[in-house]
DNA sequence: TTCCTTGCAAACGATTTGCATTGGA
DNA sequence: TCCAATGCAAATCGTTTGCAAGGAA
């Protein structure tokens, strides 16, 4: 059992929600992925023994209790990834050719700059920033 | 006829694509909106005389010729906005309470910083950045 | 036992498409 | 004129849900 596994187990226990085999499979699959994953992708990776509807339900409760978070992509496809407290704050590199979405963690000083910018923007526009995401579209290493 | 209207007309003409009444309605609606709009929202604003399927088709060709660009949001809803060359480069303030998406244009020096960051990230990750979007989630003025 | 969770199939909602008709250059 | 564009209805596809069966405390 990995650390992530244990942390998720604790979090769910605190809410009296069961950490079942299906939910565990989703978490482990996401923990090993380099970026957000859609229900269909998880279905392919985990194996078709777990029906799609169950995956969707697992993702729904995992999101509800702050374990995973959604990312909305092209063609109306929602991909999920582990929440920041499990995976760390990061941004996304989105390939306009193959559609892949990869995580990127900014060097601390740069992330600080972004954070400061977001704060400034908030006060500039009477908007209270809670979260931010720098999404960079372009061509990934395999598609150059 | 507005300037935007004329610019779109030229762009489409260059591609021998007709700038029809339906397409014109989409452009004018988007030109007057403070943020991206979904097909359903356009349908409501333009009037139900133009069927949804036609709106989708209009949006598809307008996107194909670089006149509008999509933004992917929660619940698999795609919203469109005028392309940057018509509307200017900007970012989005997304309200987690009411779901509204508003445009925000960064002061030039700040936008420069973001641009520089994106460039750095690209070389850091062997990724060729083409576009970037700083999406800020939080609570909008009406939902504070 | 008593709920929570899962499987299956049907239902949904956003978007797409086939086909016959209309309309603009 | 003549092909592109539109309307309508049916089809797709990702996602959700009702209901009965299975499983953990």
Can you tag this structure with a few keywords?
three-stranded antiparallel beta sheet, 2 domains, homodimer, Arc Repressor Mutant, subunit A, DNA-binding, alpha+beta, 6 helices, three-stranded mixed beta sheet
Distance between the termini of chain A: 38 Å
Helical residue percent of chain A? 40-55%
β-strand percent of chain A reads: 15-25%
CATH superfamily membership of the largest domain in chain A: Winged helix-like DNA-binding domain superfamily/Winged helix DNA-binding domain
Structural class of chain A: alpha+beta
How many DSSP helices of chain A?
6
Order of helical and strand elements of chain A: HHEHHEEHEEHE
Beta strands of chain A, count:
6
Overview of the molecule:
The structure is a homodimer of 144-residue chains. With 144 residues, chain A is of the alpha+beta class. Chain A folds into two domains: 1-86, Winged helix-like DNA-binding domain superfamily/Winged helix DNA-binding domain (Arc Repressor Mutant, subunit A, Orthogonal Bundle); 89-144, 2-Layer Sandwich (Dna Ligase, domain 1). Chain A contains six helices and six strands. The first copy, chain A, has helices spanning 3-14, 21-32, 39-46, 52-64, 84-87, 108-124; strands at 37-38, 68-73, 77-82, 91-95, 101-104, 128-139. In chain A, the strands form two sheets. A three-stranded antiparallel beta sheet of chain A has the order 1-3-2. In chain A, helix 3 packs across helix 4 (52-64). Chain A is globular, with a radius of gyration of 17 Å. Chain A starts with a helix and ends in a 5-residue tail after the last strand. In chain A, 23% of the residues are buried. The model of chain A has no long low-confidence stretch (mean pLDDT 92). The interface between A and B is large, with 40 and 40 residues. The structure holds a DNA duplex (25 and 25 nucleotides).
